[in-house]
Design a protein that fits this description.
single chain, mainly beta, seven-stranded mixed sheet, four-stranded antiparallel sheet, elongated
Length: 120
């Protein structure tokens, strides 16, 4: 069974940094696009950053210049380096990925999320 698990969420002061990690496991044949989303209380889930199979990235305007998304294709992992964090970055962060698993078609998978809290 394919699973995504995030880690690295924490409580940090404004201006601080965190590194979120996402690990995909299971009978994975290939991973296409991966993304980090976040959802703050009372708000809709929004796309923070995405990376395609070729390594090209895109970012929400609110995080450009502060967040960096990288992936290790061989290890089925992805990382989100977050610098100069702001209180408005507080949210649950979710990893998602388009994964083709053994004996299956390509599906979109989600992790359970990791909490990031930025204090002012």
């Amino acid at each position: 069974q394919v699973q995504l698990v995030e880690s690295g969420g924490d409580l940090v002061q404004a201006g601080g940094s965190l590194r979120l990690s996402c690990v995909a496991s299971g009978p994975i044949l290939s991973i296409n696009t991966m993304g980090w989303y976040r959802q703050a209380p009372g708000k809709q889930r929004e796309l923070v950053a995405s990376i395609n199979s070729g390594g090209s990235t895109s970012y929400a305007d609110s995080v450009k210049g502060r967040f960096t998304f990288t992936r290790d294709v061989a290890k089925n992992t992805a990382n989100l380096e977050m610098n100069n964090l702001k209180p408005e970055d507080t949210a649950v962060y979710y990893c998602n990925a388009q994964i083709r698993a053994l004996g299956s078609t390509t599906w979109m998978y989600w992790g359970p999320g990791t909490q990031v809290t930025v204090s002012s």
